[in-house]
Write a structure and sequence with these properties.
143 residues, elongated, mainly alpha, 86% helix
C-alpha cells in the first residue's frame, strides 16, 4: 500500500498537477511549483526511504523462506535504490533550486528547469511503476 500510494502520487504530479500548472500564468506557475518543491522536498525522502526499507524487508523474508518471488523482490528493491539515487542527482537538485527562487525575479532559465524536471520525473515514474510491478509479482509468486 505504501508503494502504491507513492507511485500514484508521483503519477498524479506528472500527469495532472504539473501539466495543469504549466498552463497557468507564470506567476501562479512559479509560486505553485515553489510551494510544492518545499513540501515534497521535506516529505519525499522519508517516503522513498520507507519504500526501500519495506521492499528490502519483504525481499529478505521471501529469500529466507525460499519463496518463489524473492528474485522479483530483490529486483524491486534494487530498482527502488536506483530510483532514489537517480532522484538525488536529477529532480531533487532542481527542486532545491526552485524552492529558493526569488519569485519577483525568476531566473531566465526557469521554464527550462521546469521542463527538465518534468522529463526527469517521467523517467522516475517509469522506474517506480516497474519497481512496484516487480514487487507485486514477487508477492503474487510467493502467495
Amino acid at each position: 500500500m505504501v508503494a502504491g500510494l507513492l507511485v500514484g502520487n508521483e503519477m498524479a504530479v506528472g500527469l495532472i498537477v504539473h501539466p495543469t500548472l504549466s498552463r497557468t500564468r507564470d506567476e501562479v506557475h512559479s509560486e505553485s511549483v515553489q510551494a510544492l518543491a518545499r513540501v515534497y522536498g521535506w516529505v519525499m525522502p522519508f517516503w522513498y526511504a520507507a519504500n526501500l526499507i519495506l521492499y528490502c524487508i519483504v525481499a529478505v523474508v521471501l529469500y529466507r523462506t525460499g519463496a518463489k518471488g524473492y528474485p522479483q523482490a530483490i529486483a524491486a528493491s534494487i530498482l527502488m535504490l536506483v530510483t532514489i539515487v537517480f532522484s538525488s542527482i536529477g529532480p531533487a537538485p532542481i527542486n532545491n533550486r526552485v524552492a529558493l527562487w526569488d519569485l519577483t525575479r525568476l531566473p531566465p532559465e526557469w521554464k527550462h528547469e521546469r521542463w527538465l524536471w518534468d522529463v526527469l520525473h517521467f523517467v522516475r515514474v517509469i522506474m517506480l511503476v516497474v519497481s512496484l510491478l516487480l514487487f507485486v509479482a514477487a508477492c503474487l509468486a510467493s502467495a
